[in-house]
Amino acid sequence: MxxxxxxxxxxxxxxxTAVIISFPILTVALVVGLxxxxxxxxxxxxxxxxxxxxxxxxxxxxxxxSMNFMxxxxxxxxxxxxxxxxxxGS
Length: 90
Description:
The protein is 89% helix and 0% strand.
């Protein structure tokens, strides 16, 4: 039987899993954005594609490198939390 505590605990763990999965991509986007912003401030180049393209390339590379980690984390979360709830265990 699902109680409010079980639902809120599962929601909390799901949100934490989302934070852990998104951390590598968001960190790289922040670091690349700061580096490009510093470069633009130092050189006075204000080209919009200069911020977009390198950040996009860095995000795609990190996403590709961390796909195994993300997949393993999601499968582990679903296997240990969601599937038992669907099957009726708590």
